[in-house]
Model the fold of this input.
Amino acid sequence: MIITRKIEFSASHVCRNPALSEEENRKLFGLAANPHGHGHNYVLEVSVEGAPDAVTGMVLDLKELKDVLHREVVEPYDHRFLNYEVPPFDRVIPTAENIARDIWLRLEPRLNRPGRHLRLVRLYETPDLWVDYWGNETCSA
Amino acid sequence: MFRVTRRYQFAASHRLHSPLLSEGENERVYGKCNHPYGHGHNYVLEVSARGPLDPAAGSAVNRALLDCLVARQVLEPLDHRNLNADVDWFGPAVPTSENLGIEICRRLKRNWAAVFSGDWPRLEKVRIEETPRNIFEIKADEVE
Done:
């Protein structure tokens, strides 16, 4: 069984690779390379897979999931400029892919327990663009 | 490995009518979708590609390249068109959203390597919402 919880955070970022020229950054990132940055209302869906506990009937306590998401994602990310305020984005380009992976790395140790594991992180940068990350496994999510 | 999904929209009209069926059978099979002058939808198209991270770009799929491919192969030929009269993709087939989705997927797959020249990213699937309630999904493996 897969359980998904959705949260939102708003943040700004700029996508530039310091090793590349201005022209190459423009070509690669387009408007996202504008030097002073821009923002998004990010929407995050986090899916945990497991079997319901025989006693509680729950895969995990959704209050616990809510608290973990708040502590690990909303608190550090919300209303921040990711490049300047949220490591590792001082050295990692805060693309949707890299943000999704950073969120995965933050959440996996907090959510994986015997009988349940983090299954999928889906990050919407806008309603028209989203990224799925499922760790290093090769299987589809 | 990442999956990147991009969402696009186009508006088009169609009429569901098979030359292989009689007038009565067409009416029975397709109902109001068989009305003689056709009707339209705001189609929503989701294109998903998967791949590993390109370290220089910090990204698995170059959005500008994907947008360009989808614009050229799908949005320009279809947007604000009549699928029966203006689009020559279907031959004798009926422009149902099944056939539309298969044809979009096939066209993206065939033209993929001209835009994405390496092993990755690869087209994974195409999903079409004909209306918010009618949704069609085609995996790239299902088409040539």
